[in-house]
Design brief:
Elements (H helix, E strand, L loop, with lengths): L2 H28 L1 H9 L8 H12 L12 E2 L5 H30 L5 H39 L10 E2 H18 L2 H10 L5 H6 L1 H15 L5 H21 L6
Parallel strand pairs: 1-2
Length: 254
């Protein structure tokens, strides 16, 4: 195929993906009450599963449970709620459409691979899709609520009340959860590069200490608030994913 024929095939992939995202977006947009009340705003209340789990563990250990938690959000922009409704619907649709999008890109690159490479890469693509959703769930059920509870209740003085804007909340919610989903792709990408002979297990082991510094820098860049708590909440899973990448990689001579 010529260069322009490849571009035409890529255009078809992007068009099909965009159509599915729009369909999902319309469905999610119409389910506003469920999406926002049951999912997006669930972490602002003490009834969120992670808070109840921690509270139950503390009480079983004979310690004082968590204090009641309820974060009040405010809106100071006339058009913010409408546009946040649209943007949130888009991001939810994008997450749901991820398996289909990955499959379409697999069909696009498949003709360029040898038989052995196809078997390895399709496993990596499947692994990557699973890891993305695991990352989104980890971000939603663990990292975001912990970050929210810490930052939402932190005060430099009791005389300074926290008034969290809707835009600030949604921005951190979307950005942090999507970023965690994306960084969970690290082992999948490492597996693909390893099967293609670009990356080896010994290389990752050799530069492990350098990777720690780089991963902390990456965590600092991708955390929306930039505070040390969120930095560690993102940095620790990043390093764990690096170690998992070492496990799924192989040396070229093996």
């Amino acid at each position: 195929m010529s260069f322009w024929e490849h571009l035409d095939e890529l255009r078809k992939v992007l068009f099909k993906s965009a159509i599915l995202v729009v369909v999902f977006m319309a469905a999610i947009f119409s389910a506003k009450d469920f999406i926002f009340d049951k999912i997006v705003f669930a972490p602002i209340d003490s009834d969120f599963p992670l808070y109840r789990l921690i509270d139950g563990v503390l009480q079983r250990l004979g310690m004082e449970g968590l204090e009641p938690f309820r974060l009040e959000l405010i809106n100071i922009d006339l058009s913010a709620q409408f546009f946040i409704h649209i943007s949130t619907s888009f991001y939810f649709a994008l997450v749901l459409a991820t398996p289909f999008i990955l499959y379409q890109f697999w069909l696009f690159v498949k003709p360029a691979l040898y038989a052995e490479e196809k078997r390895s890469v399709i496993k990596a693509f499947s692994f990557g899709g699973i890891l993305f959703f695991v990352g989104v769930l980890v971000g939603y059920y663990l990292i975001f609520p912990l970050t929210l509870r810490f930052l939402g209740t932190y005060q430099v003085s009791a005389s300074v009340a926290n008034q969290i804007s809707l835009q600030s909340y949604i921005s951190m919610f979307i950005w942090l959860i999507l970023i965690i989903g994306v960084v969970f792709e690290m082992p999948s990408l490492s597996a693909i590069l390893s099967r293609l002979g670009i990356l080896t297990k010994s290389f990752l082991k050799k530069y492990r200490r350098h990777a720690v510094v780089i991963l902390l820098i990456v965590a600092a860049l991708i955390t929306p608030s930039g505070d040390p708590f969120t930095l560690m909440a993102v940095g620790v899973p990043l390093y764990a994913l690096y170690e998992l990448s070492i496990l799924v990689c192989r040396d070229i001579d093996k």
